[in-house]
DNA sequence: GGCCTTGTAAACAACG
DNA sequence: CCGTTGTTTACAAGGC
């Protein structure tokens, strides 16, 4: 499929953030090393080459455009006369010119760049009046120029883009969705690049004009002089994926860009004690300048991509269900763009439940687990669903390690309940600690640090944490010099969830039989969610998923964070637990009684989302590195 | 329907 | 006394 190529290229973006996505790198709001583009290993890949070439192409194109654009007046002629060269703001907003090619290159992968150009062109077509025809043509020329360049490159074997990809570049881009961490990284890159290149100024481009003719520019109206409310609108217009429904933000303030004491401007996370300080910060740091507009624009792209991705994944789900002889229910929600005009984009909470076969046999069949899935698309309207009795994790799916690694930023910012049990989370927190031990308070902190969700209702979940610590034998309290710390007894933990058969036919049978009557069992739901998530979040893996996979027999495990220990056992550096312990844990099977209980078809995931396996392999090392 | 897991709530004790 | 930590019990919801 086309996904292959697209994701292949997008991977470059993904790889850049490996450092970021690693759980260890929770530089909580602290200094972000923006712009470290990951090409630490000084070799120049074809992709790098492409970037370079693209950069040149862009520059050339821009030069060309600028020369002629200067003659044009913007529709609203609102240019600010700061820079020698004035560019219609719509253009500034809509084209890569608003940031330097270097910046573009840094924040967007080649196909993204290309797609951007095309999308911008499309937008231009919509938004510019007929007067702008000439301008459009120039834009097209620019794009063509770039495409030609790409073509040339490809013919030279430097690029693996399909020649025909020009027209469908957007599609490629769509297919290669960015995961939350991607997005976050994107922001950081933009921010980082901007900050470092601030002095360079925008090569004669001044974007700090306002434009009333560009609808999308409303987003960019996040400007100092505008009070919070319009800002809120702006933010909603952007459909920020990680900032979903705001109702729960009241306690943190009334500003959608402000929450939990920090600035929620993408990639910012600056700490602000109060709203006043935040506003000040907003005005100072996020004024209407090229950086902000760039970020807004990227955010638009982000939202767009997420929406598109959602649609695609929905389609995929539809196809899967159809294939599995499920009643497709109403295909409607899948085929139509998720975000109706004007509707908050991330309406997935509507889409998914709808997309899933409505439980015909039992109205009680819960769909919430899926909705609470880690998927980005399920970020909205989740917090108010009330007590969650079941995580969809634990049993049937999501590897905490990989899930968290990939969606670290997402969970940090989105008020979405992580689809893991407390026990899993606690364990993960502890194992993530340098010496595999944490005090209660440190566990608390980990929760709040890692999950925006756990910044609310502290009494409740803290109680739950304590409850879990006490309840589960796998959590061992160790008296310490400075108090007590909690550790994980892996053996005990694994007892609770012994590895079962992986991708066994039984499972499949179960699944299918479960599907037979349309009542989705939780496993399947989770599988879908998981599958969707992994695809959504790690385009990197998509291309490999089919090939990789299935060669990790024993990991039909629900909570794949267990793999962390596996790795640890190899690499071994776990003061908390001996390597032996770790070595044993996986296959330890004692207390048959307990094992019995565990007829969880966890391995389903291995069948459905082989991606995860690779996933784990990938992010484990990063964990180890911390 | 019973059992199990999980989440939530709450009571309670120990401790600083 | 108060807050934190830790244990325990009870109950509800959901899955098997």
Automatic annotation (TrEMBL):
<feature type="region of interest" description="Disordered">
    <location>
        <begin position="204"/>
        <end position="253"/>
    </location>
</feature>
<feature type="region of interest" description="Disordered">
    <location>
        <begin position="1"/>
        <end position="44"/>
    </location>
</feature>
<dbReference type="GO" id="GO:0008270">
    <property type="term" value="F:zinc ion binding"/>
</dbReference>
<dbReference type="GO" id="GO:0005634">
    <property type="term" value="C:nucleus"/>
</dbReference>
<keyword id="KW-0804">Transcription</keyword>
<dbReference type="Pfam" id="PF00250">
    <property type="entry name" value="Forkhead"/>
</dbReference>
<keyword id="KW-0539">Nucleus</keyword>
<protein>
    <recommendedName>
        <fullName>Fork-head domain-containing protein</fullName>
    </recommendedName>
</protein>
<feature type="domain" description="Fork-head">
    <location>
        <begin position="417"/>
        <end position="490"/>
    </location>
</feature>
<dbReference type="InterPro" id="IPR047414">
    <property type="entry name" value="FH_FOXP4"/>
</dbReference>
<dbReference type="InterPro" id="IPR036390">
    <property type="entry name" value="WH_DNA-bd_sf"/>
</dbReference>
<keyword id="KW-0238">DNA-binding</keyword>
<dbReference type="InterPro" id="IPR036388">
    <property type="entry name" value="WH-like_DNA-bd_sf"/>
</dbReference>
<keyword id="KW-0479">Metal-binding</keyword>
<keyword id="KW-0678">Repressor</keyword>
<keyword id="KW-0862">Zinc</keyword>
<dbReference type="InterPro" id="IPR001766">
    <property type="entry name" value="Fork_head_dom"/>
</dbReference>
<dbReference type="GO" id="GO:0001227">
    <property type="term" value="F:DNA-binding transcription repressor activity, RNA polymerase II-specific"/>
</dbReference>
<dbReference type="InterPro" id="IPR032354">
    <property type="entry name" value="FOXP-CC"/>
</dbReference>
<dbReference type="Pfam" id="PF16159">
    <property type="entry name" value="FOXP-CC"/>
</dbReference>
<feature type="compositionally biased region" description="Polar residues">
    <location>
        <begin position="1"/>
        <end position="23"/>
    </location>
</feature>
<dbReference type="InterPro" id="IPR050998">
    <property type="entry name" value="FOXP"/>
</dbReference>
<feature type="compositionally biased region" description="Gly residues">
    <location>
        <begin position="28"/>
        <end position="37"/>
    </location>
</feature>
<dbReference type="GO" id="GO:0000978">
    <property type="term" value="F:RNA polymerase II cis-regulatory region sequence-specific DNA binding"/>
</dbReference>
<feature type="DNA-binding region" description="Fork-head">
    <location>
        <begin position="417"/>
        <end position="490"/>
    </location>
</feature>
<feature type="region of interest" description="Disordered">
    <location>
        <begin position="328"/>
        <end position="367"/>
    </location>
</feature>
<dbReference type="InterPro" id="IPR030456">
    <property type="entry name" value="TF_fork_head_CS_2"/>
</dbReference>
<feature type="compositionally biased region" description="Basic and acidic residues">
    <location>
        <begin position="241"/>
        <end position="253"/>
    </location>
</feature>
<keyword id="KW-0863">Zinc-finger</keyword>
<keyword id="KW-0805">Transcription regulation</keyword>
